[in-house]
Amino acid sequence: MTRTTRLQPIAKINKQEERNAARIHGETMQQAEQQQKQLSELIAYRNQYLKGFQSAVKSGLAAVQMQDYRLFIQRLDEAIAQQQQCVTNGQQKCASSREQWADKRNRSKMINKVVEKSERSEQQASERREQRELEDRPHKNSTIR
């Protein structure tokens, strides 16, 4: 069994690990984008609600209604803070998955280079062997006669 034959399954496994890491990174990126989208929607909703509150104040509000508005805005602010934390966590996961994918890709490339070098070496050895056999044939034919 040649060295290349022994290395090929390892290269195949590493390539699969690289693909899995790329898939995970893609999923992580999508999740981070979704988290960011939800944050943007919450902020837009809060801004819209705040404008409604401001126009209601101008037209006159009862103290109870004002308290309800403020309480709801406070809850929106808390939800925004939580969502910002989710976005931060998602960005960290995305960076981590990108690093893992890059590591797997580099390892796969490195192993592929070793396999290619081994293939070239084996090919060169085979060519040298064939060349020696061709060179030895005339000597064998002359000694047989």
Provide an overview of this structure.
The chain has helices spanning 3-59, 63-144. The model has no long low-confidence stretch (mean pLDDT 91). With 145 residues, the chain is an all-alpha fold. Helix 1 runs antiparallel to helix 2. The longest helix has 82 residues, at 63-144. The chain is built from two helices and no strands. It has a single domain (3-144), classed as Helix Hairpins, CATH 1.10.287. 96% of the residues lie in helices and 0% in strands. The two termini are 38 Å apart. The radius of gyration is 34 Å and the shape is rod-shaped.
Please supply descriptive tags for the structure shown above.
mainly alpha, Helix Hairpins
Envelope shape: rod-shaped
Count up the domains: 1
Q: What Rg is obtained from the alpha carbons, in whole angstroms? A: 34 Å
Order of helices and strands: HH
Largest sheet: none
CATH class type? Mainly Alpha
Q: What's the architecture, going by CATH? A: Orthogonal Bundle
- Strands, total number: 0
Spatial gap, N to C terminus: 38 Å
Helix content: over 70%
As for the CATH topology, it is Helix Hairpins
Total number of helices: 2
